[in-house]
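tool=predict chain=A
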Amino acid sequence: MKFLQITEPKKHGFNLKRKLYHLLGLSVPIMIYTNMFQFLNPEDEFITRKVLIFLVIAAIIILVVMEVLRFHNQRFATFFESMFGSLMKEAELKRIHGSVSYIISNLILLLFFTDEVIILSLCFLVLADPIAALVGIYFGRLRFWNGKTVEGLLAFIAASFLSGIIFYSIQDLFNQGELPFVLSQGSLAIVLTILLGTSIISAMAEFLSIIVLNGLVDDNIIVPIASVTALYCLSMLFGFQSSLIFFDWANYI
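tool=predict ok
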């Protein structure tokens, strides 16, 4: 088995409908960023996080029930596949589909990490993954042993890095240069270094990600966890406080 070989681009296999569905994953970062549920309790700065945790737990319960029914009730399985089959990989028809692992990763992030870390790590996954797939399928020639391409890997890094820069730029625009999130005291060079390092580690996590526990663990969990781990390690390396990474419930409950 060759580590790397030259192949012709596949020119097929990109499920546009599935990738557009994945973009719904941006709903959590958007709600976090805009503090969408602040109207419920204007005095609670983190009311949106608390509401989202409740909604995510409810979603996990619903998805788990649906998965149990799908695997144990043929009539429901047929109905489910007729409704959502076009959004699933062929392999997901026989294992837990990716929405379950993605929503679990959202819960982990909401429970333990600051808003900005949640936004960055989910953007790395939700935006970079479909771009990498698109580039790999239509332009990938240098293919690794696992079927993924050099072009797709580089596209993942570039898309992650660019999404981080865009996020920083938006924050800078709306906060008049004072960036109230991870690395807020850092110079531009440090910020870009940490973003690039995190983008590379996230891309490698996606490249090396495995599917275990019948699909319960896949890149939807592995990539965000790799992203926050990279952010933490690189932040500590440059002397930043861990409080910029980990959410402190003790101060807000």
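The chain has a mean pLDDT of 84. The longest strand covers residues 4-6.
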